[in-house]
Amino acid sequence: MNAAVEAMAFFLGFFGWVMAGVAIPNRFWRVAEMEGNVITAATVYENLWMSCLVDSTAVHNCQDFPSMLGLSGHVQASRALMIASIVLGTFGLVATLVGMQCSKIGGDNYILKGRTAALGGIFFILQGLCTMIAVSWYAFNITQEFFDPLYPGTKFELGQGLYIGWCSATLALLGGTCLLCSCSVTTKEKKLSYAYRGPTRGTAYTTSVTTTTPHPYDRNAYV
């Protein structure tokens, strides 16, 4: 049962890692519709790296952000967190693959493999937290600007890249939690098996020997 849980957790973490890699280059983190007539209508969409505009003739015009230091603080933080998410997910995949019971990579030391799998679960949880913070922070700024009546710029809405990021974070958190729960159950079972193990062969038993002193009027006293 634990091996099946570890395999399921590995695939959850793997799909979460893949979806995080899909969310980073996705262009539709925030989308805005530019109102106008049929000729001047356009759609603006942005992500962490570039800003694009598509007009009514379906012509796309994308431009990278000119300066990283000139970006908003939440965009820079989201970039760093998403990159850290990919790195942590990579470590989590390697550690989980080595620590799984059905894997022969780490040898037959199941105690060490269990600890390695638990470390992989921690990496998956950190990956999910980084992705969740980055996506949620970015979405918070979008909603804050959208509902601010005094905001003079273009008001954007949530794009599909944010939803991909939320799904990625959820899968990574589920995979890491399953790994930690599986390792904790395995540790408890091993402790119980050692606790109920009977005495082994060659165990020395001590018995108390009662010594009695001879009575002064015993028959041996007269010999």
TrEMBL record:
GO terms for molecular function: structural molecule activity. It is found in: Cell junction, Tight junction; Cell membrane. Keywords: Cell junction, Cell membrane, Membrane, Tight junction, Transmembrane, Transmembrane helix. GO terms for cellular component: bicellular tight junction; plasma membrane. The keyword Transmembrane applies. The chain crosses the membrane at residues 7-24, 77-98, 118-140, 160-181. It is a multi-pass membrane protein. InterPro entries: Claudin, Claudin_CS, PMP22/EMP/MP20/Claudin. It holds the Pfam family PMP22_Claudin. Its main location: other. It comes from the Eukaryota. Belongs to the claudin family. Claudins function as major constituents of the tight junction complexes that regulate the permeability of epithelia. This is Claudin.
